[in-house]
Amino acid sequence: MNYKIALIKGDGIGPEVVNEAVGVLEAVGEKFGHTFEYVDVLLGGCATDAVGKSYPDDTAEKCRTCDAVLLGAVGGPKWGSDKPAEQRPETALLAIRRDLGLYANLRPAVLRPAMADACPLKKETAEKGIDLMMVRELTGGVYFGKRDRYQTPDRGVECTDLMAYSEQEIERIGRRAFEMARLRGKKLASVDKANVLETSRLWREVMHRLAGEYPDVAYSDVLVDNCAMQLVRDPSQFDVVVTENMFGDILSDEASMITGSIGLLPSASIGDTAPGLYEPIHGSAPDIAGQDKANPIATILSVAMMMRYSFQRPGEAAAIERAVDAVLAEGWRTADIAGPGVTPIGTRRMGELIRGRIEAMA
Ligand code: NAD
Ligand code: IPM
Ligand code: MN
């Protein structure tokens, strides 16, 4: 097959990690007889520098002509919160998610076998394993609500960010999560703050209605503060976790760290139509950008998710995951996961080793 892929390299370590993931795609293409065509698409701080705005007019359209989108990361101190919205990289990221209808963000947190020693939890907790799928709602909630900033007569400036959810938005992400649970361990935890928020009470109502349609899935409600704690106490209790946009953002960074590093966790953002967008959950890591220090594994595993969810190629996805596990099992580590006494390797070397593993597969 020939696949056309939009590459949004972005800012900071974005181009470095995307380059390694593209190398892996090429190795997969060789091995399995596919060809990939790439279209470079501008989005983020680099777009602001090039054309004056972070989300150029033709960006979404260019992505729509492709079968999938691979994104590195966007953002950086150069385009901070003091800049107008249209120049900020994060505004563009939200806009592309909305414009491509990518309401479901799948963020798997897996403690890979070779990484058990990198888990910061108690040894006996780590030994129970971590293999959960966070399903984060991605195009609603406080991220997309009306914002306001105004002067009050007596309390200075006041700001508001509206958190809104409709039944329809909750139901479609809920269905995705129940379906995902069916394909996995048949357990679903829905995370909310129904003891305080009206949006969460509606969330819970809709989830309970759906739970009736999926009697084979063991369903539970978990309050978000408790979930944050349970992830550290005993993450092995979770299979699929579904939650709203901002809770999912925060909890997935937490989930990444208990599996060793944020540099390891991939994600898939999907909607009801192609293309899906694949990106690591980490950001542009300005502190290590341009130094060949970033861990490319999260982006490489995002390509595996692309194979699985956009192209229905589970064999190719598994080959990439096996290659990553094999290289980790041999003890190769980038700086973020190198324990004491381990000499880290760079971004490019890690990519090269993973490609080599794919090439060597029978
Ligand atoms: P970050 O994820 O970029 O970095 C947090 C820490 O993790 C840093 O110390 C960084 O060096 C480290 N880190 C991240 N990815 C790594 C990797 N692959 N290998 C090794 N170490 C890694 O988060 P931040 O510093 O809060 O944000 C920096 C910028 O990135 C901000 O502008 C933010 O808005 C943006 N951001 C973008 C995305 C995205 O594009 N999807 C996601 C998160 C943050
Ligand atoms: C992520 C990031 C983004 C988010 C930011 C950069 C807008 O943190 O993809 O997790 O909050 O969704
Ligand atoms: Mn985030």
TrEMBL record:
Its EC number is 1.1.1.85. PANTHER family: 3-ISOPROPYLMALATE DEHYDROGENASE. It comes from Lawsonibacter faecis. The keyword Magnesium applies. Substrate binds at residues 97, 107, 136, 225. Catalyzes the oxidation of 3-carboxy-2-hydroxy-4-methylpentanoate (3-isopropylmalate) to 3-carboxy-4-methyl-2-oxopentanoate. The product decarboxylates to 4-methyl-2 oxopentanoate. The gene is leuB. Keywords: Amino-acid biosynthesis, Branched-chain amino acid biosynthesis, Cytoplasm, Leucine biosynthesis, Magnesium, Manganese, Metal-binding, NAD, Oxidoreductase. This is 3-isopropylmalate dehydrogenase. Its cofactor is Mg(2+); Mn(2+). PROSITE patterns: IDH_IMDH.
